Amino acid sequence: MLVSEREQLRANIERQVKEFGNDRSALIPVLQDVQHKYGHVSEYVMQVVADILHIHPVEVYGVASFYSFIGHKQKGRFIIRLCRTISCDMQGKDRVARQLENDLGIQFGETTPDGNFTLEWANCLGMCDQGPALLVNERIYTKVTPETVHDILEECRTLFGVYALQEKETLCELPTPVK
Amino acid sequence: MSIELNKNTSRSPLSQRIQPMGIPGLEITDKLVTVTIDDKEVTVPSGTTILEVAKQIGIRIPTLCYHEDLCVAGVCRICVVEVEGQRTLQTACAYPVTEPITVRTHTRKVRQARRHILDLMLSKHYGECYACFRNNNCELQALAKEYGVDFFRFGHPEKPRFKVDRSSHSLVRDMDKCILCRRCIRTCIDLQEVGVLEVDKRSDQSKVITFGDKPLGEVVCINCGQCINRCPTGALRANDPTEEVWAAIDDPTKHVVIQTAPSPRAGIGECFGLEPGHPLTFELNTALRECGFDKIFDTNFSADLTIIEEGTELLLRLHKALVEKKAVALPQFTSCSPGWVKYLEHFYPEYIPNLSSAKSPQQMFGAVIKTYYAQLNKIDPKDIVTVALMPCSAKKFECNRPEMCDSGWKDVDYGLTTREMAQMISEAGIDLPAMPKSDFDDPFGTATGSGVIFGATGGVMEAALRTVIELVCGIKVEDLFEHADIIPVRGFEGIRFLELPIKKVGPVPDLLKNLIPDWKWLEGATLKVAAAHGTANAKLVMEDIKAGGRCSECHFIEFMACPGGCLGGGGQPIPTSPSIRAARAKAIYSEDASYEIRKSHENPAVVKLYTEFLTDGPCGHISHKLLHTGYTPRGKYIV
Ligand code: SF4
Ligand code: SF4
Ligand code: SF4
Ligand code: FES
Ligand code: FES
Which of B9, B247, B289, B375 has its CA 20 to 30 A from that of B491? Predict the structure, then answer.
């Protein structure tokens, strides 16, 4: 990342952090906010956040790695998280999983080469009576079957298309992971 | 006082903080409550934990994550007890008593739970005790014995899960032996405020990592080794060069000399079963000769040398500021603690000009041995191997700094910790406490009490003051302080201040004549000094300086990276606690009091060195080449 980009990013984060107060208790709201805006929290950003909140970068790292919804690597535009906990498991999550892998051509934990989709496991989403359940970004889908997987993906590609483009604009601000 | 920056960002224990911080629910109040533990009744102030109560009445409750120096974590669960009326077992270390309770510490339920906890820990614990440096001094091993573990209920790993991290000059991390007690984390974050270690992920994925799981050698670790001293197992250890040292001893072409620092001498007895606080200085000399070292020198010699160089540097800085009216970096910071030096390089690189350019005693000695001593004894410096016995893991990093080769050779070849030395001695079959006493070798034999107290926090300051007062005021220190004991800079308070008005000045001593013509300009001035120990306190001082507080008005500040100073160093015997450190400090101060010469500038060997070798005096050309150094701004960002 260029120095100027870094400064820009730092200024953005500083502005964001102000809303939450610069105290160590603001850490989680700040991380959520950064994750929401940039899709991930890079190692550089963690250090900036630590600086502003007067805590150690490694503490930020520890908190970020504790929560699976905060990631430190850039992921796909749509993150699909399939529930793997017992109810969904019994209601056929395996077949859904295989369908997702087939349709997207990636394994769980991977991102499609075009950067559109990331496939991940999630633990209970609180929809046990309507399983199998999955999340696409912040939207929940229930009673998913291998057949509906195709629809969901299509929906992402079209219905979310505009949103995706918009997202792209903000994505321009995205920091590339620090080397 | 304006030091209160970041006061709510740390969970460090009160002993390490200036501002007492309340832990909700744990405040000790005046209210008294009655606790019954195993049928013994006792009345304690409300807020005391079950563990503390049990200790008071001599009931043992096992602990692993609890440590006297650290905040309570309550993560290992080994200290569980039964509290009447509570459905589940409770952790004794994290249960503040606020109302009358009845506790049972070894019911069947408790014993079983503890045993299962141990079994679970062992099911992930890869390693064999007989191939582990903590064998016989390991809290996990001791508990396994205490609870009669004779098989692995939940299995035992057959191969390592992690790679051993050997990237640091000072520390080795073997996460296969880690039981996730998080003592190292609390040490590094709270006690030292360096912030190198944390837990990654959660549950069975948990692992202690550095930022970005990078190798320890690439992050902001200052090598203080405080985490080693508090780790209950062999997961953390110092980088051990004993094999190389033995090889040098066994090589007949090598002339192996060792310098011993005061703190290891005060602590090493603990490795041989003595109570803390028994210095074995002269027994150690005999033992080292037995081991095969050719010469044994006292680091105090170069500590005295450091005082002369660093004191002169201070006087020159003051002269520049007050007489020549030039911009000069003040306060001057001491540079003898390599952990502190690296801390400053990482976190306050803009203050590097304030660091004294004088090398630490260890490095000065190395440089003097490979030049002056080599010439004197007509030994080719390439055949000399210098070993330093230090209480410190950061010294291993220091002697490997690329700039520490001013003699033309690596000034100090190997740094040994107290623990490693004890290991070598026992390997040689020597019972150290039973050794006859013998003296240090010439030509550096005679040391002073000032060198000895370098080992305690405030010691460098006290030694420097003794010399500066006498050189500048032309009076005896004893006229100002009884027995030349400068009490205000002693003790374990985090940061200590002393103001010393210079009422009248004396003549400039010969040693400094060619540097400063007279002391007139110091008459009526007040010398302000401070001492801080533990990098958490160092951080407070630095923030105060930045904010223009009291510390910024000081002229000279002593910093030591380790709580308690060198005597609490990361290479000292394990375990450590406030009372152990206090006992070691007492040993050091009593050794000081026993010396006839107690001021650095009166050390005849030092005076001789200046007349024979460093002929252009303190801070002169030769001394600058050999005894001074430079620093590297490192910054804290990890990329
Ligand atoms: S850490 Fe303790 S229990 Fe583990 S191998 Fe070493 S001595 Fe044995
Ligand atoms: S040696 Fe010191 S700085 Fe390094 S990890 Fe251990 S406690 Fe932290
Ligand atoms: S490395 Fe040692 S101190 Fe740190 S968590 Fe593991 S066992 Fe505890
Ligand atoms: S088990 Fe899948 S939502 Fe609860
Ligand atoms: S010692 Fe109490 S939980 Fe670890």
Answer: B9
In DSSP terms, which residues pair with B532 in a beta bridge? B495, B559
- Is domain A78-171 annotated with CATH 3.40.50.2020? no
CB contact under 8 A, A58 and B199: no
Cis bond upstream, residue A132 (ω within 30): yes
**Count of positions (residues) in chain A:** 179
CA gyration radius, chain B: 26
* Residue A31: C-alpha distances to residues A70, A165, B192, B195, B528 (Å): 7, 24, 26, 19, 44
Which residue ranges make up each domain of chain B?
14-106, 120-238, 306-358+447-572+593-627
C-alpha dist (Å) from residue A141 to A80, A103, A132: 10, 17, 9
Question: In a 3-state reduction of DSSP, which class is residue B332?
Answer: strand
Cβ within 8 Å, pair A59-B200 = no
Q: For B422-439, write each residue's pLDDT tens digit.
A: 999 999 999 999 999 999
Residue B526: pLDDT band with limits 50, 70, 90: very high
Helix or strand or coil: residue B473?
Answer: helix
pLDDT class for B485, splitting at 50, 70, 90?
Answer: confident
More confident residue, A35 or B160: B160
Share of chain B above pLDDT 70, in %: 95
Q: Is B7 on the interface with A (CB under 8 A)?
A: no
Which DSSP string do the residues of B10-36 spell out, in sequence order? Answer: ----GGG-SS--PPTTT---S-EEEEE
Check if CATH label 3.30.70.20 holds for domain B120-238: yes
Q: Which residue has the higher pLDDT, B509 or B145?
A: B145
Q: Which tens digits make up the pLDDT trace of A74-113? A: 888 889 999 999 999 999 999 999 999 999 999 999 999 9
The pLDDT tens digits of the residues spanning B595-625 come to 878 888 888 899 899 999 999 889 999 999 9
Q: Which residues of chain B make contact with A43, given a CB cutoff of 8 A?
A: 211-212, 638-639
- Nearest beta carbon to residue B196 from set A47, A58, A66: A58
* Sheet strands side by side (includes B526-533): B332-333, B556-560, B526-533, B495-501
User: How remote is the CA of residue B141 from the centroid of ligand 5, in Å?
Assistant: 16
- Answer whether residue B51 shows pLDDT above 60: yes
Assess if CATH 3.10.20.740 describes domain B14-106: yes
> What is residue A160's predicted lDDT score, i.e. its pLDDT?
56
Pick the CATH number of B306-358+447-572+593-627 from 3.40.50.2300, 3.40.950.10, 3.30.160.250, 3.90.76.10: 3.40.950.10
Q: How far is the CA of A89 from the centre of ligand 4 (A)?
A: 8
Phi-psi region of A161 (alpha: psi -120 to 50; beta: other; left: phi over 0): alpha
How distant is the Cα of B637 from the closest Cα of chain A, in angstroms?
7
Of all residues in chain A, the one with the smallest CA distance to B219 is A58
Give the number of C-alpha atoms closer than 13 A to the C-alpha of residue B355, restricted to the C-beta side: 27
CA distance B618 to B626: 11
CA angle A54, A56, A62 (to 5 degrees): 130
Q: Whose CA is nearest to atom 3 of ligand 5?
A: B74
Strand partners, B43: B34
Give the length of chain B.
639
Beta strand pairing call for B295-298 and B255-260: parallel
